[in-house]
Amino acid sequence: MQSILIVDDEAKLRELLARILKLEGYRVLEAESLKVAESILQKEEVLVVLMDVRLPDGNGVEYCKSIKVRYPLIEIIPLTAFGTITDGVKAIQNGAFDYIVKGDDNERIIPLISKAFEKIELRARVRDLENRVSKKYSFDNIVGVSELIKQAIGLSQKVAQTDATVLLTGETGTGKEVFAQSIHQASKRSSKPFLAINCSAFSREILESELFGHKAGSFTGAAKDKKGLLEEADGGTLFLDEIGEMSPDLQAKLLRVLESGEFIKVGEAKVSKVNLRIIGATNRDLAEEIKSGNFREDLYYRISVFKIALPALRDRKEDIPLIAQFYLEELNLKINGKVRGLSEGLKNKLQQLPWRGNVRELKNVMERMIILADGDILTEIELPLEYQLTSDTALSILSLEDMEKEHIRKILQVTKGNKAEAAKILNIGLTTLYRKIEDYHIT
Hints:
single chain; 5-stranded parallel beta sheet; 443 residues; Rossmann fold; 16 strands; Helicase, Ruva Protein, domain 3
């Protein structure tokens, strides 16, 4: 129950307010002095304080500041007399939520208290979200025990304490953005924005506008001024994924940002300045791109001050079962799955697969398996057919007939028993499907 403390030396007013608030469903505590109020605050979980500004043992206006310093989550609403409105204003300056004039603002009391609790609840949700984001993007949440991943984590933790520019290299799906987020979260810039952009997803013109911003009228469609990501990320971190895809002229502009913190918006003449950290990522060999004339050598040396290579999943096979179990638990919550583990056979099979899409591919496969799972333990039978066909081990486990039977059963699950739809997906006639269902005793 939401608790309110009323601090007022006028017993009748205090009792009247308490009665009104109790009828609204609040838990009400009362104090006739600052001394009693202090004792209650130390023992009880109070969220809102209604407090007279003139009390026998002190000044409520000054006490506002004391409460906010020691109990920053509490919202305070001073009660002032008409002639002491300036006290209410000063109390707000000392951290009060708002103030009420005794006798004149009776109708405001309940709505104002309701708004104070709304602010408290919103702040709690924001804090919870920040905690979840911090936990999600912490190094503790990167799964793996292999030497390769531990080395990458160790290097990232060290560079996070600095402002050095970082270049993350590795194949697609190795978790470069997760590492970038974790570096940001462990840095002194963690309270500032982390923004990310994939440089390969935009044309040269749009990428320039997205990064540097533009002035209204600078090109067709630029109806108003736009802040770029450099400006939006000021004080924080900007993650440039697939930086090797950036055009040479934008590379030159980025080099200026790295060297001086200066940039010019599209269509503007004046120079803007920012203070941010840049983390780049690429799955290309930038040294080869330099030889081919596709990447500036001077930019390469600026962005690779600290280079971290993220290993491919097939190079850290001992981590695969751990990552699969991690995603199983995460996806169970997301899709209300009931699967609780993986069979030893499935773990072995997952370690044999090539995982060209790395961690991202493994996550997608786990999600498909959990959606279609019948029991609470995933086995190699649940693997999508294309993964079962990629190793001799799978072929020794299942005959062609078994694989066809299992595939038909899974498709029927996906179509929720709609045989006409299943026949279309399987690219066979409906009568053929009925025959196979009968032959294989599929129920």
